[in-house]
Amino acid sequence: MHTPVPLGEGVPANTRYAVSVSLPTWQDNVDYELGARRVVDRMVSGYPRFFIAKPIQALVALVKERFALPNETAMIFPSLACAKRCTAFIYDQAPKQRSEELAYELPAPGQVRVVQHVFEPINKRAAALDAVGSVLESPVTIYCVLMPEDLFPLAKQYWQHTGNGISARLADYCLHVVRINEEHEQETKPYSPAARNGAARRGKGSGYHRKPTGPSAVAETLSPETDIEADAYLEERFGRNCEPRHAAAMKAVLRRRIAGVLSKEELKQGAQVERGVAELSSDDVYLMATGASAVFYSHQALLTMRSGKSVCFGFPYTDTLKILQKFGPGAYFLGHGEGSDYERLEEILEQHAQKQDPILAIFTECPSNPLLKTANLPRLRELADKHSVALVVDDTIGSFANINVLEWTDVVVSSLTKVFSGDSNVMGGSIVLNPTRPLYAALRVALGTVYEDLMWCEDAVFMERNSRTFMKRVPAINCNALAVAELLQASDKVAQVRYPKFTSASNYALTMRCNGDAGYGGLLSVEFSGGESASKAFYDNLACFKGPSLGTNFTLASPYTILAHFTELEWAAQYGVRADLVRVSVGMEPQSELLAMFQAALDAIPEKGSEQSQHAV
What we know:
Blueprint: E1 10-11, E2 20-21, H1 26-34, H2 37-40, H3 54-67, E3 72-77, H4 80-97, E4 113-119, H5 124-127, E5 140-148, H6 152-162, H7 168-188, H8 193-202, H9 225-238, H10 247-259, H11 264-268, E6 285-288, H12 291-305, E7 310-313, H13 318-326, E8 331-334, H14 340-354, E9 361-365, H15 377-386, E10 390-394, E11 411-415, E12 429-433, H16 440-450, H17 457-467, H18 470-489, E13 494-498, H19 505-511, E14 523-528, H20 531-541, E15 545-546, E16 556-558, H21 560-564, H22 569-573, E17 582-585, H23 591-603, H24 608-616
């Protein structure tokens, strides 16, 4: 259905800030996890919390050349608080994670440190011609955590789990300022060979004018400046973007859109969103740089209210559990999220209440990723109220276009990167507080102590543009996904289809919005009767984009467990997350074409008899 995207290229194709990356075969995914050079060396893009984007790599190279000692590396953050948390995380986790696999010297006091670096164009008129389209009024400051190279995996964990790393668009802006300032210095100084050589030395490490060498030689893989300008032209002329100087207004629009407080014109167009809570306002919405950071900051805010373990109810997206386990006193994991887990949850709440060490919060997803299970939210709410525990629900998969979970919860977290954006070219997240719950006032104060607006101005502009059609896109995706799920369900080659209509259906029904457009969302997971060999045949012959992420306007598939839990496959299998599971995010393509594509992939799975005869030969 789509023109195939080469291995390692961004998905969507020809998108500079693509959120996904093409891994077109099952073996590509396995080899990526194994670090095979044939895959890793071709990666020009990747999911931004797992793959450090090329512009960020170039900025790291600049920082290292200017500030790092020999055998040191760097990780870059948009705020001092983020950098300090990263530093604290490294010191906390270094002794806990040290092993034969992760062998390093424990860092001495002060060895992991933070350096501040400011980017401000000298010639603002020239800087205004960059990819942003306008020069920013204030200088941009980044914060660099410098550390011994062997501690980098710990810093990378913090980057991945929290979603607090800088945006690739922000990195590009910083590199552009460096280039503009170098050119200004060269133009304003009298010509002499010595002066020219001196300017070149002072400008080293910019990532644009100096040919890099060694493992940090990433700048030469970046697109030329003319390509950036072409990207900007296309987006601004045909994408209806506002300029970044309007980012504050765009963020206000996003908060209103998420809260359901829309303009009269939007109401006329049928874009009204009801969150199930009449008192909700845009002031109760907090924008985040990523979906993971929404989970992270919710947890951090709760920890400022009181210290205590949390409970993760149901098998969640991988980083949610890691946040609860690694930041703070830890968490209980009830990974099945059904049956006896409710009784076990009640036991945990009672035991901690008796010890006067109350549980901090219950975290769950609606529905869960990748098993598409939905917890009984009224039952969780009842238990949370009984023990004065916060209930935090991630509605990313269902999306607030389909479900109302806010009425049952204290906090709703969501990844705006997914269906809210749809275009797979920008990251974002949100936290929404329920103003009718008893914990609301305390949560507002707590968030006020930890919250930072770290959504880069350009990212806010793209997110606002992409999300204008959110409420119109979701019904089409619902319809397509249901048709695909039913096609797969009817096949004798399929062992199980995980989809809200078939998985915890009664619990999901409790959350569904009461209108004709609400549905089951666009995500499903499928397991095959033939096991891994059938999964490989299906995946390799599925003619859609293939890579990480979900909620895209186009169909996107991945062998989810291989990518998310490659080092813990047996552990994941205990909770029903099989290694041969294929996760599919269904898009907006014509339904007839979609069904034909999925049927062709099913047909590519050998029949049991023919498979046995092939082995006999």
